[in-house]
Design goal:
Elements: E1 20-25, E2 29-33, H1 40-48, E3 53-58, H2 76-81, E4 84-85, H3 98-115, E5 118-123, H4 126-134, H5 144-157, H6 159-169, H7 171-175, H8 182-195, H9 199-205, E6 214-220, H10 224-240, H11 243-251, H12 267-274, H13 280-303, E7 309-312, H14 318-329, E8 330-334
Parallel strand pairs: 2-5, 2-6, 3-4, 3-5, 6-7
Antiparallel strand pairs: 1-8
Helix pairs in contact: 1-14, 3-4, 5-6, 5-8, 6-8, 10-13, 11-12, 12-13
């Protein structure tokens, strides 16, 4: 369903975000998915002006404290209008998993219901969405020694070489993982070594209760050229706002290069520059390239989505369509919104 279609029928006058409360809902939550730099934050902030929302971040980079500029976290004014939950949860030396996200997200969804809010989960970490919607396979925990060995091979041979090995051992997994996606290649090889089974088989073993009903949206850029230019412009704007200083603070922690916080697109390239591997100009080129590659992977994932309403990101009626769809699933009446909590 594209945004160009007619917006469903008219509604009676509605309560706004500041004086509304939910009395009944027929969906578990709203899921707003989209690639990087497509306008997800802007959309939920506009919605929060109209509806009593609880915005829950679905972003594996925004969970880290101190990584603010390069992760494009919402700013103070945006968070004043639409407080965001599940950001700033841990420090860069810590790991945060999809399984932990699913647990945290379910807690926030339940809290939204208690407070009479519409839970809106917005972001671009598709594995987190899948963990919430479908559950995860019972996979082994990380093995530090094994990961160190895999990362050493990657430094010597490059991730594409390890991807080729994965293709020979687990072609189904390799088909879903990009040749330069080091984190996922590492995990697939690690699981294979630890369990003796391809990770693709374990994915198929994932099971659980029937998934609850979600109202799902995909925010898709129609003009891909303009979207890629926005990625470049945002990268440069973040550099002007002090991203390199933020990367220097991260670099000073001398973290294991295998930690997720050091692999975030843009940060990784700036850290490599600070290690003396190449110039700042080259780091910019590589960082933009990595961010565009991330966006392409997110779009590839979204193309396979079913039962999702596809929104054209450039269409100014996006907010109105999502608002109408929410009203068709939740009964929202007049009433005082409960006091806002501290986000965590």
């Amino acid at each position: 369903m594209e945004l160009g279609s007619a917006i469903p029928g008219s509604h009676a006058p509605r309560a706004t975000g500041q004086n509304a409360a939910i009395t009944r809902g027929t969906a578990e939550a709203v899921l707003l998915k989209g690639p990087t730099c497509v306008g997800k934050t802007r959309l939920v902030v506009e919605l929060a002006k109209r509806l009593p929302l609880r915005v829950i971040s679905v972003d594996s980079a925004c969970v880290y404290r101190g990584l603010d500029i390069g992760t494009a976290k919402p700013g103070p004014e945006e968070r004043r209008i639409a407080p965001h939950y599940l950001i700033d949860l841990c420090y860069p030396h810590e790991r945060y998993s999809a399984a932990r996200f699913a647990e945290d997200a379910r807690r926030e969804i339940a809290r939204a219901r208690e407070l009479g809010q519409v839970p809106v989960l917005a972001g671009g970490t598709m594995l987190y969405f899948r963990a919430l919607e479908q559950g995860l396979a019972d996979l082994p925990g990380a093995d530090a020694a094994l990961r160190k060995a895999i990362q050493g091979r990657a430094r010597r041979e490059g991730w594409p070489a390890l991807h080729e090995q994965l293709r020979q051992l687990d072609p189904a997994a390799a088909a879903r993982i990009a040749p330069n996606d080091g984190a996922r290649i590492e995990r697939a090889l690690e699981v294979l070594r630890l369990t003796g089974r391809p990770i693709s088989e374990l994915w198929l073993d994932a099971s659980g209760a029937a998934p609850p009903g979600y109202l799902k949206f995909a925010l898709i850029p129609e003009d891909r050229g303009a979207w890629r230019r926005r990625i470049e412009e945002r990268f440069d704007d973040m550099m002007k706002r002090g991203w390199l200083d933020e990367a220097r603070a991260l670099h000073a922690l001398n973290l294991d290069p295998g930690l997720p916080a050091t692999r975030i697109a843009g940060y990784r390239q700036l850290l490599e520059h600070l290690d003396g591997q190449f110039s700042l100009d080259e780091a910019r080129v590589r960082g933009i390239r990595a961010t565009k590659a991330l966006g392409r992977r997110q779009l590839t994932w979204l193309r396979a989505e079913r039962d999702i309403i596809r929104l054209v990101a450039e269409n100014p009626q996006c907010v109105a369509q999502v608002e109408n769809e929410i009203h068709s699933h939740w009964q929202i009446g007049e009433g005082l919104t409960p006091p806002r909590e501290d986000c965590k």
